[in-house]
Amino acid sequence: MARNGLCLPGNAPAFRATLVLSLLLLLQPIRAGHDYHDALRKSILFFEGQRSGKLPHDQRLKWRGDSALHDGSTAGVDLTGGYYDAGDNVKFGFPMAFTTTLLAWSIIDFGRVMGTEQRNAVKALRWGTDYLLKATAVPGVVFVQVGDPYSDHNCWERPEDMDTRRTVYKIDHNNPGSDVAGETAAALAAASIVFRSRDPAYSRLLLNRAVKVFEFADTHRGAYSSSLKNAVCPFYCDVNGFQDELLWGAAWLHKASRRRQYREYIVRNEVILRAGDTINEFGWDNKHAGINILISKEVLMGKSDYFESFKQNADGFICSVLPGLAHTQVQYSPGGLIFKPGGSNMQHVTSLSFLLLTYSNYLSHANKNVPCGMTSASRPSSNKLAKRQVDYILGDNPLRMSYMVGYGPRYPQRIHHRGSSLPSVQAHPARIGCKAGSRYFLSPNPNPNKLVGAVVGGPNSSDAFPDSRPYFQESEPTTYINAPLVGLLSYFAAHY
Predict the structure, then answer these.
(1) Which stretches of 111-223 are DSSP H helices?
(2) Could you give the number of structural domains in the chain?
(3) Which pTM value belongs to this model?
(4) Which residues form the signal peptide (predicted)?
């Protein structure tokens, strides 16, 4: 998640290239060629393919079956349910909590325009929160992972056949993890807003648990990567520090509870917890841009003048992402896709685009633009860039390929996903062992089970895509790619 810059002071060729790119991205005519509602439906359906535990009677992806029905038993707790984060069979709590937070935020801000899909989005959210409640049921403990990642990654087998070690990992006062606990508190608090009118008792349970988990995260400070290094690194190692998750958790608790203590916590810790750091980063490991966008709404809506600095940081985020502005710090592929080095680039595309659209909506209601040096960024520019990224995912790209499985005439066929790539239990009732699945992994044939709605890691910096299982950085889907996309597609389905 390194920071990148297209436009550096004194670098005239790079500046000219950025200006040309800005014209390509922002001045092209709006297309009406995508069925955003169909893409929305599929983006939510994807979460059913990632379910762990006992599947409900209304499960729509029928090639999936029950799995991991004894999770938590070795620790004397029930940790069944939840989501597999990507194409493996481990339940990683950090990205699962972030996924839950972003699903909740998508519903909070865009649920009113989801139409018939709002019900499915809420069900996807509850599948996550039900698990997080189990993971935080023991006071002073958060269960943050189920499954030994090394044995899991050494096998290629269906979740329904899983026989790898389902080791349970936890944080407590002796082994802190303020990052994953802070994100879990944020997820529970955000979800409490969604369920406030739908299920008041459940909403209160979520908020009360969020309060306790946040108190634990703040009292026993430390990174879970230090406490559980051998289990979580290099898979979901926190390289950004735990400070942002504490602010993030406090911000969601303030929004959910309106309690003054959280407002005071945010103001008191703004500098200490580095709210202004890396403002063009947002994802499961780095919450800085999201913190500033979320809190800035208070200022724009005239509810608080305590948070003016967060609004300035949010403005800085816009100036750092939009191409053609003096402070652009984000790289784009030749085809116009946001690109950051590392794996699973689409996680940056959907998360940053979600913030662009969300902040644009906040600015619109307040009738304000964003000052960027000698110029300003208009609200339509942010919307157009977010829409351009979504359209790229859906097929407006140099390869004319949709990167969402099941959407459009051409999409990835060989995604890095165990359940999708192996024959289903219905088609092949006999167990497929750990190493027996290798031939399916190495096969050039398309996956037999369509993981509808899955958005893969995406093309490289030159817009090339291999469509091959071994290229996991490009071909693996994740829940935290899809969660912010739910909000984006909801908005575009309603407005285009």
Answers:
(1) 118-135, 149-153, 178-194, 200-219
(2) 1
(3) 0.92
(4) 1-32
